[in-house]
Amino acid sequence: MDHLNSYLILSAILLSLGLYTVVTRRNAVAILMGVELILNAANINFVAFSKFVTHSLDGHLISVFIIMLAAAEAAVALAIVLNLYNDRGHINVDEANALKQ
Amino acid sequence: MIKLALFILFLPLLSFGLQIFFGRRYEDKKGEWVSVGIQFVTLIMSLSMLAMMLSKYDPEFAIEVHRSWLDLGLFKIDLGIYIDNITIIMLNVVAIISSLVHLYSTAYMAGDVRYSRYFGFLGIFTFSMNGIVLSNSLFMIYMFWELVGLSSYLLIGHWWEKDSAANASKKAFITNRVGDIGMFTGMLIIATVLGTFNFQAIAERIHDGMWAANAGMLFGGIDPHKLLTIAGVLVFMGAVGKSAQFPLHVWLPDAMEGPTPVSALIHAATMVAAGVYLTVRIFPFLTADAMATIAFVGGFTALYAATVAITQNDIKKVLAYSTVSQLGYMIMALGTGAYVAGFFHLVTHAMFKGALFLASGSVIHAMHHSLHHLHDHETDAQDMRNMGGLRTKMPITFAVFMVTTAAISGIPLFSGFLSKDAILAGSWAYAANVHDGWLAHLHLAWILPVFGFGAAAITAFYMFRLIFMTFYGEAKKPKIFEHIQESPKVMTVPLIVLAVLSLFFMFTIPSLNPISDHGWFTHVVQSPESAVTTGPAFNLEHFEHALHAAHTPAMITSLVVAGLGILLSVLTYLLNKISAEKLATRLGALYRGSYNKWYMDEFYIHGIIRPFLKGCDAVGRFDLEYYDHYLINGWGRNAKRGSRGVGFADDLIVDGAVNFSGIIFQWLGWTLKFVQTGKIQNYLIYVLIGAALLFVVNVF
After folding, report:
1. HEC letters along B109-177
2. Separation between Cα atoms, residue B38 and residue B40, nearest integer Å
3. What pLDDT score does A99 carry?
4. A91 by DSSP, 3-state: which?
């Protein structure tokens, strides 16, 4: 398990799962979860590339930033979801289509 | 002198302005006296100019000032003032008659509906007449010529509520226009050849040969002498209109519709004399043929109008035809070369004819009063058949009438004798001695003395007929007669002044010989030499020689014919030895012809005006039915058809292309709008597909 490709495959699987979740789920909270998966797939890539290619701690550092950013993003997004719920009584993104033509 | 002349010119205009703008307000407050006052101021100025002239006593005296008015480079028009002895005498004639008429009108027109306006119009007339007199060029004379025409029009139509007055003013204006066209054309010919309108310059340039040099080149090789004849006769046409010469005389008798003082001022003494004045001014550049034409027109008019005057019953109509006849005398005199006599007669005639008209006005005024008193609105106040025996009721008017009738009939001791005699002697001299001009070539020159003496006899006859019918005999309408009274002083004083000015010594001082016209007048007014060098023209030396020989026989003949005329009149109308009615029936056709003015009005209406109107109608119909219908409307129809085709092409091709692109984009928009689902996830999928495509494109 100390080969770069294994990490990249894991990251790809996570990205795909995250994308799938984001595209298919109707629940806003579930979509947010998907987004977390995508972000963490990126984290894995950063850490893997810095461990196997550059042999530095730059990637780790950026991962920490991303985790922190994800937390902030989740706070904003959940606030939006909460407002959506207050407004409509559900958090179904399918029906939040007031911008449609 | 020039300043004085400018004052004389413009003061009457001031009077006009005051009366027009403020007159109405002061109508009941003696506002008219402002105009009368102004007129008397100009009279004093004119008299002072006359005094200056007499103190100089120089036949050659002349001054001229001019300013450029229109400068077109090669062609310049100057306006200016030219003063010589003739100008000064004319200014005095105008000022005397005008001021007396102003004074007279204050009584005659009292209570008139447009009282102040009447005085305003008298003002503008006097202004324009002075303008004619002071003009130094044909162009300026033409401007004032139209202005006097306008004021004449306004004053004839003063009582425009009457149809006859309105028509008479129109007739006067239009008839004058016919003459003015000729005058204008003649002016333009002269100005084209010589490049100037100025009288002095024209004479000088013709004399220096400029006419002979330029005329042929400018007018297609025409003989310069002929062209000069044509130009002279054309300019003279203006005089034919204004001075009521045959065949344009018809307006003057009708102009008697105006107030009588106006008839005295405009249609007897001054404006109608403007034509004679114009002929005086163009005299130096008339050719022998032009002069023959002028003499013939004048002579014929003199006789013709006199024959009409015999049978008229309207007192003003008689005087009107007599005016036409006397103007014919003046014109004839100028045509025969009797320049001094023509102008002399203008001046003497202005005085005695002015007086005659004002005196007839006095009679009419009295008649009106009497009729007004009787509440009679039917009887004609101007018809002599309603008068008779007035001499006891109106002694002053009668005396004035006698003096002035004696003057016009050519009785010694009165001014008319001197001037008329000079004219007749001139025509005699012309017939005996002049061999140039078409009249002489056709051996017709003796027709002029025949015209002249014939008219003299008839004039004496009808003037005494007028006197006898008006002032002698039984009163024909006793009721009216009872209420007749002499006119007030403001009316009789002008009459007396003019009657005194009709006495011979007013014009012959310092000489007091009643049968010779030698005196101050013939000294200061002397005939100019002809300036014409292109061919036969007036020869002063020859003419004066012939005049000397003709003087005595002409005088004797004129006395005899005048005496015959008076005798016949006395027998017919005073002593009733000859019955006028019987004479009229025996001379049936002649009488009817004369009574109906030889049918000149009918000739104009049926011979010219009606056919002309018909012609206008025909042209109008042609215009409407053919020109409009086929050409204009046809053009419109075709254009409509053509534009319909173009419109169709426009719709199909241009609009089609525009609409087609519109449709495409509409369709595109309609199609693509379905991509916009509003679902964020769909958009995400599009992003992924796009990213994947980019990836594929980049990698491969």
Report:
1. CCCCCCHHHHHHHHHHHHHHHHHHHHECEHHHHHHHHHHHHHHHHHHHHHHCCCHHHHHHHHHHHHHHH
2. 5
3. 63
4. coil
Helix, strand, or coil (residue B459) = helix
pLDDT score for A13: 94
B673 close contact with A: CB closer than 8 A:
yes
From chain A, the residues in CB contact with B688 under 8 A are 19, 23
DSSP code for A56: S
Two tokens at B658? 């525009």
Share the mean pLDDT of chain B.
86
Instruction: Look at A19 and B681 and tell me if their CB atoms are within 8 Å.
Output: no
Contact B684 A100 (CB under 8 A): no
Measured CA to CA, the distance from residue B383 to residue B392 in angstroms comes to 19
- Cα distance between residue B400 and residue B167, in whole Å: 32
Q: Which of B480, B500, B461, B479 is nearest to B363 (CA)?
A: B480
Of B679, B685, B688, the CB nearest to A97: B679
What b-and-e string marks burial along B618-627, b requiring 16 or more CB atoms within 10 Å of the CB? eeeeeeeeee
Q: Which residue of A has its CA nearest to B669?
A: A101
- Contact of A22 with chain B, judged by CB distance below 8 Å, is answered with yes
Q: Which fold has domain A4-88?
A: Helix Hairpins (1.10.287)
- CB–CB contacts below 8 A, A to B: 23
- Distance (Å, rounded) from C-alpha B433 to C-alpha B450? 16
CB contact under 8 A, A22 and B676: no
Task: Report d(CA B431, CA B546) in Å as an integer.
Answer: 10
Q: What is the pTM of this model?
A: 0.76
- In single-letter form, the type of residue at position B489 comes to K
A19 CB within 8 Å of a chain B CB: yes
Nearest to B684 among A23, A94, A100 (CB): A23
Which of B673, B680, B688 comes nearest A93 by C-beta? B680
In chain A, where the domains are located: 4-88
Find, among B505, B132, B57, B540, the residue nearest to B339 by Cα: B540
Q: Which ipTM score applies to this complex? A: 0.72
Contact: B677, A100; criterion CB under 8 Å: yes
- The whole-number pLDDT of residue B477 equals 77
The alpha carbon dihedral of B219, B224, B228, B229 has a sign of negative
Q: How many CB atoms lie within 10 A of CB B510?
A: 9
Give alpha helix (H) positions in chain A: 4-24, 28-49, 58-88
Q: Is a pLDDT exceeding 60 seen at residue A101?
A: no
Shortest Cα distance from A25 to chain B (angstroms)?
9
Q: Give the residue ranges of chain B where pLDDT is below 50.
A: none
Asked whether the bond before B247 is cis by omega within 30 degrees of 0, the reply is: yes
Q: Which residues of B touch A94 (CB under 8 A)?
A: 679
